[in-house]
Specification:
The complex is a heterodimer. Chain A is built from 9 helices and no strands. By secondary structure, chain A is mainly alpha-helical. Chain A has a domain of about 50 residues. In chain A, helix 1 packs across helix 2, helix 1 runs parallel beside helix 3 and helix 2 crosses helix 3. Chain B folds into 2 domains: about 100 residues, Rna Polymerase Sigma Factor, Chain: A, CATH 1.10.1740.10; about 80 residues, Arc Repressor Mutant, subunit A. By secondary structure, chain B is mostly helical. Classes of the chains: A mainly alpha, B mainly alpha. The interface between A and B is large, with 34 and 47 residues.
Amino acid sequence: MDCRDIKKLLSPYLDGELDEEESKRVASHITSCLDCSLELRELKDTCLLLKEDKETEPSQDFFPLLLERVNREKDRYTPFRKAYWHLGSLPAFARLTIVLVLGAIIGVWLGSIISLERNAVIKLKREGNLAKVAQLENLQSVPPRSLTQAYINLTSPF
Amino acid sequence: MGNNERFIPDEELMQRLKAGEADCFRELVMRHQKGVINVAFRITGNHQDAEEIAQEVLFRIYKAAKDYRPETKFSTYLYKITLNLSFNQARKAKAILKRFFSGEKSYHQKIEIGEVADKSYDTPMIAMEREEVKREVRKAIRSLPKRQRIAIILSQYQGFSYREISEIFDCSPKAVERLIHRGKIQLKKELFPFLKKR
């Protein structure tokens, strides 16, 4: 390794990023090379100079302000959103099971409503009561030659 | 989370926050607030902006906890957001200039532009010299290309390894090594007059 190769390794050498073998090679080179040891010294001083610009501390109200914002966000949460938050923390199979069970319950409930309505309509038809439906007061106000009246005439069994 | 308890990794704290343990958020903030503020400050050059960015970053972390996956390293995730928001803020040059030229400057701005000395027990002469060095260091860092600047800030100030930086950049540690090497050479040139004084 010549000086050009060694100089490329000086920065990771200073940062402790070289493996043991490379590190030894650099260390042994700089003991015998004035130019490279000077370069290493300057790089080291540059890094020390960077450290002169110390870290700034957070202001005293930094965390209270953040906490206030977080609490405002929590208050915005409706029970539905809270449930969604907790749902997100469950494993995938548990979430899938919950969705399927809820889907099944809603499906059965909707199915029962639809079948009840259908049964009621069939019953009305059988008893010939659809005429009464067609003669309801609100339908009597429909103009005689309108599209609505034509539809009622078409769909009415009488 | 007392001193006698084992150290809990950030990723586990996020998992516990996701499960509803609100205290874990406080712990995460205490661990990372200083780092986030300082990275944002070194990019934007304005302490007030840096604190606002840090507030936004940590708030986003809180909101994103429910979708957090432990496979993502927390610090990579945190500093990616910090860097994005900081560079967005720095890009709003018009607003920054407006603030700079109007009205009262903040205490940190005054320190930065050298109107007042930073809290120090040094003699006025030494304090002035220190301020000058700090100013030049900040100027030199800000003169670096974006990726070099990020790599230098994360490695020299935040103590990130080359591998951790490579995860943020999505590149190899060797590429980070080259970035940092070039950055340091550039900084050495810029700060050469101050090196001579040491």
